[in-house]
What we know:
It is a single chain. The protein is an alpha/beta fold. It has 2 domains: about 5-210, inorganic pyrophosphatase (n-terminal core), CATH 3.90.1640.10; about 215-330, Diaminopimelate Epimerase, Chain A, domain 1. About 40% of the residues lie in helices and about 20% in strands. It contains 13 helices and 12 strands. The protein has helices at about 5-15, 30-45, 75-85, 100-110, 140-150, 160-175, 185-195, 200-210, 215-225, 240-245, 255-260, 290-300, 315-325, and strands at about 15-20, 45-50, 70, 90, 115-120, 130-135, 225-230, 235-240, 270-275, 280-285, 300-305, 305-310. The strands form 2 sheets. Strands 3-2-1-4-5-6 form a 6-stranded parallel beta sheet, with helices on both faces. A 6-stranded mixed beta sheet has the order 7-8-9-10-12-11, sandwiched between helices. Helix 1 packs across helix 5. The longest helix has 16 residues, at about 30-45. The chain is globular, with a radius of gyration of 20 Å.
Amino acid sequence: MTTEAIALRRLIDSSSSILITTHINPDGDAAGSSLALYHILCKMGKNVLFISPNEIPPSLHFLPGVDEYVPFNQNPDTLAERLQNTDLLFCLDYNTLSRTGDAMAELLRTFAGKKVLIDHHQQPDTDYAISFSDTSYCSTCELLFQVLSEAYPDLKWLTPDVATCLYTGILTDSGSFRFNTVQPRTHRAVATLLEAGAPHTAIHEAIFDQNRPERFRLMAVMLSHMTYLSHSVVYSWITEKEFLQSGADKEDSEGFVNMGLSIRGVKVSALFREEEGKVRISFRSKGEVDVNQYARTYFNGGGHRNAAGGTWYGTIQEAVKRFEETIFEVVPS
């Protein structure tokens, strides 16, 4: 057992009131890791609360325990009250407090107790009692599985509900096991989760086979806008008006950016989405093209080398223009 795992076990064992947090717009990895830890700590007899900055999307409502979380945007006073009586704060699947949104981050910064980071994104904050930050893992769920396996090697905590949550995060954040961060240890972890009762077929169907007709209307719009800057760079965009006209919502555009990357020869794909007066951008890349650093430099964002996001505070036309002027700094034309 590593020194950090020993320290984590002691910290958990000595804490009675524990708070779990994750990033805004929680995805499968954020919700999966948070709910997995929620189940584990509850089974240990801890007083546990999981607060997400906003709602977990409907596509993840199959996750065990999803009804137990509290969305901060609907209940801001709950976090303020709970922080006054919290022994231990977990920060899962985000590298900096700002990823929880301005209002929630402001409250979290007031917490003077022990904080634990478990995350796989680059350039994390350093103000933690214990930090498990490792970008070589394909997901926070895989990293959490490894950390808990070292801290509690008897695996008595690995129930079917926990296995379901962890498998979901690994599946979604690895691109269904296609990204280059997937390693042999990933599949060994997944084998253990399947043995523990994770229903992999049901999980896949719940995530990928529940599309609404509105998603395909929006997809047609996105494909009609697809633009080739070169044989290796493509991008597309969706305006707020087009979202409304299609009847789709934000979740319906999930995964669209990956479609550009599936084109032969393409190394970078980007998708621009108008959202509440700003532009959200998703970046995907292959090989050594680092869209994480690119997003940090030009679009107030970040993430992973081959998958990142950003925000542009202006028009979608301005965001696209910035992309066209700068993307070839990181990918050959």
